Amino acid sequence: MFASRKLLQHLQQSITLFSQFRMASSSSTGFRVALLQLTVTADKSKNVANAVRRLQQAKLNGCTLAILPECFNSPYNTALFKEYSEVIPGGETSEALSQAAKSNEMYIVGGSIPEICDGKVYNTCTVWDPNGNLIAKHRKVHLFDINIPGGVCFKESDALAAGNTLNTFQLGKLKIGLGICYDIRFAEMATLYRKQGCDMLIYPSAFNMTTGPLHWSLLIRCRAVDNQAFVAVVSPARVTDSNYVAWGHSMVVDPWGKILEEATEKDMDLYADLDFGDREKMRQQIPTENQRRTDLYDTIDLKNKV
Q1: Which residues form the catalytic set?
Q2: SS3 97
């Protein structure tokens, strides 16, 4: 009898928790997002399988959207990008993400993977809807070529081609702009997304141990405040003996520049409830969009300019 009562209490608690998660994920003004800071190994299939497990857990935690890190299926190494590359959407990783989105009935921003297309390799982010459809694809626009003596030297252009388009997707009534890592340093790109009506910006990223401590949080908060939008940035977990050591510290920031959730450097998942009603209030209280002096300056999309 006692055991039956305990079981009933546990069932009632589970139902209440599930109801709360459903409310969080189906709110008319927001949703719950998961930032999955994964450990990346040299085993592509293992990386993908781990991502699928964590996506399922995100769904169980009531998330409408889950975001994976930059290069989550392969080591971040220019010498290996071509070896790990695959076609999109026909490759192993795309098929797994499509199935995960469909089986969990959620939106997935698939971090980024090395994509092979017409003999070129791109650093590419994919987005999948709850029916498993590919609804957006973003190729990294700004390639990470830097040389800091005594710090870090990396040249993506040795192995990758650059993307040439800005890319967005719809999540219900909300519009979300996409970038990858180094793209976040270019404020003009984020400004164009704001001009396109984006409510949120997402950057799968892998900052390093030199620029991470200095610029990671600063850039994320700047993009959020400048554009009065939520910004989510998702890194791989730190692996200290890898060729490229990621800073970690995945985070989501609100339009006021407040850090809502931040990871450490370790393998972990973050969950955050985003209220876009608060975002609208902020835009009304500080109406910078309508106060820009376009008679003196502007940010223009040259590629799509008529």
Answers
A1: 70, 140, 181
A2: helix
